[in-house]
Write a structure and sequence with these properties.
The protein has 228 residues and is mainly β. Helices cover 9% and strands 66% of the residues. The protein contains one helix and eleven strands.
Length: 228
């Protein structure tokens, strides 16, 4: 009983600590993310993932994007996963309205178990092309990024709850003006195991943009995952 109480105190401390770091300012935007993903094993160590996602902004009052993702991943070892994906994005631009975006990415994720913690590092190369938009001397199209993410997950003994935190850096690779880390993202949440192959995830995501004219975002997310 005492051990379980300690585990829940740890979750609360991690969550409150991150929420304090990502405190909301008046100019920041609040939105939500709802997603469903299905994972199907094709052959040994190889999975196909299909995901549908919907996002809102402006205090949940406005649709921001719909996206449809297809990913193929492979685990050559228990601690290593590699893969790639295509993501079709319908994005609601604040000034120009709805536009189509084509994104693909390749990634490598390494993970290590340390007692009841799982530490992981993911490196992801990403390309996003906006349909009908020309590249200029100040704007790249497609935009290329290297996204580096560190994640820590805690396995609570005899519990269906898995709390986690992560931090991700977005490094531009083809900015016409200057390549740099132009945004970073922090996430805290929990995975809840419904059944052996069904998970619900609840999380809070904060994205900070280095450009002072950009609006930082606070998103509340719910994701449902199914493994077939």
């Amino acid at each position: 009983m005492e051990s379980r109480f300690y585990n829940y105190k740890l979750i609360l401390a991690l969550t409150l600590g991150l929420l304090c770091c990502f405190s909301m300012e008046a100019k920041d935007d609040l939105g939500s993310i709802l997603s469903v993903d299905v994972t199907k094993k094709i052959v040994k160590k190889t999975n196909l993932v299909f995901e549908e996602e919907f996002r809102t902004r402006s205090g949940f009052s406005e649709a921001e994007r719909f996206s449809h993702l297809l990913e193929l991943n492979y685990k050559p070892a228990s601690f290593l996963k590699v893969g790639g994906a295509y993501n079709l994005i319908n994005f609601n631009h604040e000034k120009k309205g709805w536009e189509m975006r084509h994104r693909y990415y390749f990634f490598t994720t390494g993970s290590w178990d340390v007692k009841r913690f799982t530490l992981s590092l993911r490196e992801r190369f990403q390309s996003t092309k906006r349909q009908g938009v020309e590249a200029t001397t100040t704007r790249a199209n497609p935009k290329l990024y290297l996204r580096s993410r560190v994640k820590v997950e805690y396995n609570i003994r005899k519990s269906k709850i898995y709390p986690f935190v992560s931090v991700e850096l977005f490094n531009t690779l083809n900015d016409p003006q200057k390549n740099s880390i132009n945004q970073w993202r922090g996430v805290t949440g929990i995975d809840y195991k419904l059944k052996k192959k069904n998970f619900l995830q609840f999380y809070y995501r904060y994205t900070n943009y280095v450009d002072v004219e950009s609006t930082d975002t606070h998103l509340l997310g719910i994701a449902y995952s199914i493994k077939l």
